[in-house]
Amino acid sequence: MTVGRKVFVFKDESRIDPISKETREVLISIYYPSNPVEHESKYISLFEPNISLAVDMLCSMGVDKDYICKLDTKIHNDESVDITAKNCPIIFIAPAFGVVRDMYSFCVEHLVESGFAVITVGATHESIFSIFPDGRFVQQSNEISEIDSLDIHSWKQLLKLRIEDIRWVVRNVDEVLDSDKDLRAIVDVNEMGIIGHSLGGAAAYELLKRDKRIKASILLDPSFHLITASKAEGVSVPLLVARQEKCSFEELENEISPELLPLLLSGYESLFNSCNLNSSFIKLNGAHHMTFSDIPIHYNEDGIEHKHSTINKYIAAFLEEHLKKKENKFHELLKNKIKNGIDQVNSKGQVI
């Protein structure tokens, strides 16, 4: 299957961007089943119309230019919609801190092939770069790049901005769908889910408290220290939390500062204890925090294809069970978890 991609800019006239001091702009990419094409597509096409600046920035961060420029993708910009696709639930993706919204292509491709439409929500001034359709190239602001890991107040402010951005996109998703009658024809706006990674995971969880249209959520190694969870808040949608390999106190005590670690562990435990029976907590052996993005692909990391394949399998099965009503699809898959390098974990992050 070919995956199509269209880019839109939302302007929220009700908000002023705290960095630019102008109207808040939110970039999104919508991915969908598209008609087959004969020509190949390169990964760097995701950075149109300012590929050169994007590649230069990635190379300044240690990415090999020849390698990144040769990478292929199944995603094609502005291709026509495959109108034979029907009833595609919409999945929103909220990226990790600094990660560009299109750097989840490994997951996007699989979700579209599994019958979903995907909308990735950018974070202007927070992503390492944001590329607008008119060619503007907006880098991460110095103010945001310099936030200290223990400056919880500033992180909460950034989280609030993320939540407002995603809520705006969810509320105005009809504007995107109305731009193309074929897009409108293939999606099911009654079935929506959200995937969030790291800071995006904390934002995704907070969105569940505010928007009842979201019917399933997946948190990929989220920022637990920024999550406020309790039974009283009534988040009852099915939830899958997928963590990196190191997630217990014993595994993390030499990885994370002694000031931050207790906040992270207590946040995770509160989330675990507040969730209902439709929730699952797993970890992927061999995974690190950025395994849940395209970043390891950029650096040609050994074994990343297998890890991404496993992540995709569990993500798709969970969403199919809860949004496509494929009964027990995810829970049947869990029976093979050991073979797949997956472990279930308890409230302390320890293997069950």
From TrEMBL:
One of the GO biological process terms: lipid catabolic process
Highest classification ranks of the organism: Bacteria, Bacillati, Bacillota, Bacilli, Bacillales
Keyword Oxidoreductase tagged: no
An example Gene Ontology molecular-function term: 1-alkyl-2-acetylglycerophosphocholine esterase activity
Protein name: Platelet-activating factor acetylhydrolase plasma/intracellular
Keywords: Hydrolase, Lipid degradation, Lipid metabolism
Superkingdom field: Bacteria
Database matches in Gene3D superfamilies: alpha/beta hydrolase
InterPro entries in the record: AB_hydrolase_fold
Keyword presence, Cytoplasm: no
Ranges in coiled-coil conformation: none
